[in-house]
Amino acid sequence: MIIEEVTGRPWHQEVQDRILRPLAMDHTYLPGSTPTLRSPHANAYEVYPSRERIDVTRVIVPDPGGNVSTTSDVNRFFGALLGGELLPPERLAEMRDTVPVDEETQVFWPDGRYGLGLVNRPLSCGGSYWSHEGGQSGYITLNGATHDGSRSVTVSMSTALGDSPDNALRQEQAASDLVDHALCDTLVAGQDT
Question: Phi/psi of residue 147, each to 5°?
């Protein structure tokens, strides 16, 4: 609503004009009231406490404020955001001004810190990375990018392990380990060149 009040235009049009089109994020879109995803796409599954695995692809109700994207578009966005292409330095600094996440969230993001839409998490090889996770009904996305946006990785999963809190946590930790491993490998490789 603030965007519409300030610009006089719908927020999704501002996102399209200021971010998606300039960054050539051609595979990112707002589903609106469409009850299905554009093809091609992976099917989404939920594992319930009964251990039953159900295809929930067709029952997803798109979030009216959420875009659907691809891993490459998400990586492009983080590269542009953290690389200074989208915001003036003082606005990006505000996003990076963090506070520790609460105790409950620490379980999922150990030593994590939250800013304005960005999470800062430590890397096992030293330093930290920026992230903003997402997902809905079986689709889960974890990502990470270096401070300057020069390196990024997105892990996309199409099954949500909701059969137990322990399994949901294990899934989060496994995906977080993939992000950490990918960023640490690229950082080390980048130092060798």
Answer: -55, -35
pLDDT of residue 22: 94
For residue 123, give the 3-state DSSP assignment.
Answer: coil
C-alpha to C-alpha distances, 64 to 7, 19, 20, 39, 74, nearest whole angstrom: 20, 18, 17, 19, 19
Torsion of CA 160, 137, 120, 105, to 10 degrees: -70
Q: β-strand 53-55 against 45-47: which pairing, if any?
A: antiparallel
Q: How confident is the model at residue 193 (pLDDT cuts 50, 70, 90)?
A: very low
pTM of the model: 0.87
Q: Is it the case that residue 150 has pLDDT exceeding 60?
A: yes
Q: How many whole angstroms separate alpha carbon 91 and alpha carbon 118? A: 13
Residues 6+ apart with CB under 8 A from 134: 66, 140, 141
Angle at 42 between CA 186 and CA 160, to 5 degrees: 80
Of 140, 148, 134, residue with least CA distance to 190: 148
> Beta strand pairing status for 139-145 and 134-136?
antiparallel
The mean predicted confidence, pLDDT, of the chain is: 89
Tokens (6 digits) for 131:
């992230």
